[in-house]
Amino acid sequence: MSAARAVGMVMHASCVAWNGHGLLIMGPSGSGKSGLALELMALGCDLVSDDRTALAARDGVVLATAPESLRGKIEARGVGILAADVARMARLALCVDLARVEPDRLPHEHLHNVLGVDLPCLHGVESRHFPAAVLQYLKGGRVA
Q1: Which CATH number applies to 7-140?
Q2: Which residues, at least 6 apart from 136, have a Cβ–Cβ distance to it below 8 Å?
Q3: Cα three-residue angle 138-139-142, rounded to 5 degrees
Q4: In 3-state terms, the chain is what percent helix, strand and coil (to 5)?
Q5: What percent of the chain has pLDDT over 70?
Q6: How many Cα atoms occupy the beta-carbon half-sphere of 114 within 13 Å?
Q7: How does pLDDT run across 106-131, given as a tens digit for each residue?
């Protein structure tokens, strides 16, 4: 990145990564952010951060990391706080907004602005295949 000034914040969100491609999981408390992160971790993703994610943007790129106090920890409701291997940083490639439900079978592309950068954003889907579909999106993108 260039010497341009970085803009940052800590967001109430979880984040996982697939080969450095980060997924920011947003939603209100109790919406399933940690649950989706755990499912994606079971499919091979690495934890970046659970519950709060530190974000920094510079030159059109948003990087995600965990606040030090949360690094390597994820909450599993009814089980407790679990230790996890982590990706120390990921470049955000995709967002999921669990506060919104996707009603369409083949939805148009949604965008979510994070620190001035528009990122593709999926809305929550009530289906068993949703974690696998999100992972495939990270791996291969979406066909128009």
Answers
A1: 3.40.50.300
A2: none
A3: 70
A4: 15, 45, 40
A5: 96
A6: 34
A7: 999 999 999 999 999 999 999 999 99
